[in-house]
From TrEMBL:
Residues 176-235 form the Phosphoribosyltransferase domain. Pfam families: DZR_2, Pribosyltran. It comes from the Bacteria. Residues 7-61 form the Double zinc ribbon domain. Belongs to the ComF/GntX family. PANTHER family: DNA UTILIZATION PROTEIN YHGH. This is Phosphoribosyltransferase domain-containing protein.
Length: 238
């Protein structure tokens, strides 16, 4: 490490979001002790009722458009880190989120669910932002997380297939499920249906709360010929 780094770190030490302890360079926004305390799930969940799926494949609601995979619960310090990434544009906050995704995928057995159908390989697709919102933010957090999932699962990442054509209000600003559902209706479209026809899609987002956004995206993918959708997120609301 350079002398300049040590000087800057002494003057402006980086603190852990959770405990305010000074963190090491490789620890980013969370110290190792706090990272170790984050509960990481090891199963998939029903996309409708959020119940854990026995053996990761016995779906309790067959009318669910997707199977849900979430690494942990939506609570601090994860909640703080996602906020810093999305709204304070601290892209370094993506590092612990990527580490959490890697840990979850290590624990999760997706072999049967993502095994190729014949010669058709599964693909990873990030949940898109509207172009205006992505320009304002400077990045799409779901793309950052999807890059990790793609590398970990050794699956191709397709970034510009599912697109958003409606600049919706932030879901967190809406009070109930009905408002959130109406907010995202017809807000997605598939640019190249031939890229997803007959395929298993691993759809990646940062968090799932009501599930309205993932449901609308899954509906769009299904209507364009997707075979099966596994939605993977960093966190889910309890």
């Amino acid at each position: 490490m350079s002398l300049l780094y040590h000087i800057l770190n002494a003057i402006f030490p980086r603190l852990c979001f959770n405990c305010d302890k000074i963190v090491k360079k490789e620890e980013s926004f969370l110290c190792a002790e706090c990272f170790a305390k984050i509960p990481i799930y090891s199963t998939l969940f029903c996309g409708l009722c959020r119940a854990r799926l026995p053996e990761n494949k016995k779906i309790c609601h067959k009318n669910s458009l997707y199977v849900l995979g979430s690494a942990t619960k939506y609570a601090d310090p994860i909640k703080k880190i996602i906020w810093e990434l999305k709204y304070n544009k601290k892209t370094a906050a993506a590092k612990p989120l990527k580490m959490i995704m890697e840990t979850y995928l290590n624990k999760l057995q997706l072999i049967e669910l993502i095994s190729p159908i014949g010669r058709i390989s599964p693909i990873v697709i990030p949940l898109p932002l509207h172009p205006t919102k992505e320009r304002q933010r400077g990045f799409n957090q779901s793309k950052l997380i999807a890059e990790t999932a793609s590398a970990k699962l050794n699956l191709p990442l397709v970034k510009n297939c599912l697109l958003k054509n409606k600049n919706t209000l932030p879901q967190m600003e809406l009070k109930n499920l009905e408002q959130r559902t109406k907010n995202v209706v017809n807000s997605f479209f598939v640019k190249n249906p031939e890229l997803i026809k007959g395929k298993i899609i691993v759809l990646v987002d940062d968090i799932v709360t009501s599930g309205s956004t993932l449901t609308e995206a899954a509906k769009t993918l299904k209507s364009s010929g997707a075979k099966k959708i596994i939605a993977i997120t960093i966190a889910k609301a309890e």
